[in-house]
Design brief:
Length: 86
């Protein structure tokens, strides 16, 4: 997944997620996840400082078929499904 600003330029989550939170919700056929889970980059998970990550170089793991929800301050939530290959 790439994060871009309104000009189409790549940005990192520290810029984009100031007013946003991205969640993943499990589809019904995948048990074990009953609540939405916040999504963070692999780099954040491994403790890499934000200033060392080039814009647009963060990596996020999204599972095929999962439903993601973007919450934005003062706006309606945006929901999308991660595409599947089949």
């Amino acid at each position: 997944m790439d994060i871009v600003d309104n000009k189409g330029l790549p940005v990192n989550s520290n810029y984009a997620f100031r007013d946003f939170v991205l969640f993943c919700e499990s589809p019904l056929q995948i048990p074990g996840i009953s609540q939405p889970i916040p999504i963070f980059s692999l780099e954040r998970g491994f403790g890499i400082p934000q200033e060392k990550i080039l814009p647009g170089e963060e990596r996020f793991i999204l599972v095929e078929g999962h439903v993601c929800r973007l919450q934005r301050r003062g706006k309606q939530d945006f929901t999308f499904t991660v595409p599947t290959r089949f």
